[in-house]
Amino acid sequence: MNEFGFERLRRAPDVEASNLFAYDATDRLLVERALALSAEQRLSGSDIAVIGDEYGAITLALTDAGYRGIRLHQDLVTGRRALARNADELGISGFESHELDSSLLEGARLVLLQLPKSLAELEEIADAVARWAAPDVVLVAGGRVKHMTLAQNELLGRSFAEVQPQRAERKSRLIVASGALAVPAQPPHPQRAEHPEFGLTLVAHGGAFAANRIDIGTRVLLEVLAGEAGSAAQLRRSARLAPESRRDHAELQNSSGVMPDEPQVVVDLGCGTGALAAHYALHHPEAHVMATDRSAAATASARETMMANGVADRVTVTHDDAGSDLPAAGADLILLNPPFHLGASVHTGAATRLFAASARLLRPGGELLTVFNSSLAYRPELTRLIGRTEQVHRTSKFTVTCSIRR
After folding, report:
1. b or e along 284-294 (b: 16 or more beta carbons within 10 Å of the residue's beta carbon)?
2. Is the pTM of this model over 0.70?
3. Which of 161, 126, 120, 128 is nearest to 140 (CA)?
4. Do residues 165 and 279 both lie within one domain?
5. Spatial separation of the C-alpha atoms in residues 309 and 276, rounded to whole Å
6. Selection from 241, 265, 267, 238 nearest residue 254 by Cα
7. Contacts of residue 166, Cβ cutoff 8 Å, sequence gap at least 6
8. Closest Cα to residue 127, out of 180, 172, 65, 204?
9. Domain residues for 326?
10. Separation between Cα atoms, residue 367 and residue 291, nearest integer Å
11. 182-236 pLDDT per residue, tens
12. Is the same domain home to 164 and 28?
């Protein structure tokens, strides 16, 4: 076969930068091993499932090599859109996208996996492969050596009789697992946890950030929301801002004539397991809340969180990229705890995209309430992209700001 053009792959619409790439050495190793195993075992494309193929490098290379009917699962909607763009650019078709369920894995004899960062996500994936794939399935998992741990081997050993780490190549390593073991009656995920301090139940799949815990940034933002419960000026951060900000806010409300006394359309942007959306819906039954995240594991978790808290009828959860499917200028309030990592890289690009999305989604005079690590100093950027921004709360590590859409 001709060498596949990995260098032609793009990350877009995900963040692109000189230190961010659409493929890595692990993708190449997985493709090479898959080609060898497929020839040896006479596998067709429909025998192969791919999980965690970030921008399509594995799936497109194998499809280009003649393996049609490959099934794949990508957690991030940005990855799904990038793969579609890359496939169109390269003129490649003949693969199928699935969620992490039986339709992805039923009858699969070879599963290729880019190892996830989370052990909980790996546990859910390993159980799914052992539960739904063919009895003779071989799971080939790969990752960058610097991110791999013995705990990954041990966890795979709970679902497979044989787990064989391979020699490292090009700073990457493959692990080959075979001999699927009997699975428990119930999958290990999703998992529930009660958080009585906020009156919340969280439900989390393995790939959801912070699992069923409340991460520290979200906790700080929840404390701000809870501190204002019962106030007649609920969530009107303008009352905490400088006098000129209050004046600007009042003028915007008066000029539009449509701003309600309290926010009616609220967006939890990058919702994760849905803690912010569920909390707001519980305390504001009159509001319509929308929760959106680019992670399929997160949105599946958020839907179950809404059901667990009895607010599923008042919260719409969508799998989306930075609210791109939501209407412009339709939100009165956005709640945001932005990420500061892209994959394994520390990068502020994801937060910037969410700030820009907030500017599009908010109506004039609408408010963005965001929390971030104080060292990141986002206030100037928030002011530039949204409007006047003031600090409303600060802890030893985190800052909460309110930005009013100009």
Report:
1. beebbbbbbbb
2. yes
3. 126
4. no
5. 12
6. 238
7. 173, 174, 175, 176
8. 180
9. 191-404
10. 16
11. 999 999 999 999 999 999 999 999 999 999 999 999 999 999 998 853 332 344 4
12. yes
The number of beta carbons lying within 10 Å of the beta carbon of residue 239 is: 14
Closest CA to 302 of 203, 231, 375, 218: 203
Three-state DSSP state, 378: coil
Residue type, 154: E
In sequence order, what are the residues at sequence separation of 6 or more whose Cβ sits closer than 8 angstroms to the Cβ of residue 375?
none
Asked if residue 178 lies in contact with residue 139, where contact means CB atoms within 8 angstroms, the answer is: yes
Neighbours of 191 (CB within 10 A): 16
Query: What pLDDT is recorded for position 149?
Result: 96
Q: Which of 148, 180, 212 is the last residue of a domain?
A: 180
Q: Are the C-beta atoms of 30 and 140 separated by less than 8 Å?
A: yes
Q: What is the DSSP string of 34-83?
A: HHHHHHHHT--GGGEEEE--SSSHHHHHHHHTT-TTEEEE-SBHHHHHHH
Same domain, 175 and 218: no
Q: Are residues 206 and 232 in the same domain?
A: yes
At which of 125, 158, 180 does a domain end? 180
- Give the DSSP H/E element, type plus range, for residue 334: strand 331-336
3-state secondary structure of 226: helix
CB-based contacts of 180, cutoff 8 Å, min separation 6 = 129, 130, 133, 135, 137, 159, 160, 161
Token duo for residue 234:
């609920």
The helix (run of H) or strand (run of E) holding residue 300 is: helix 296-308
Q: Which residue has the higher pLDDT, 17 or 75?
A: 75
Separation between Cα atoms, residue 187 and residue 246, nearest integer Å: 52
Q: How is residue 262 annotated by DSSP?
A: S
C-alpha 232/C-alpha 161 separation (Å) is 61
Q: Residue 368 in contact with residue 405, Cβ under 8 Å?
A: yes
Q: What is the DSSP letter of 10?
A: -
Q: For residues 151 and 155, give the distance between their C-alpha atoms in angstroms, rounded to a whole number.
A: 6
Give the sheet arrangement for strand 389-394, strand by strand.
315-319, 288-293, 265-269, 331-336, 362-373, 398-404, 389-394
Six-digit token string for 18: 């000189």
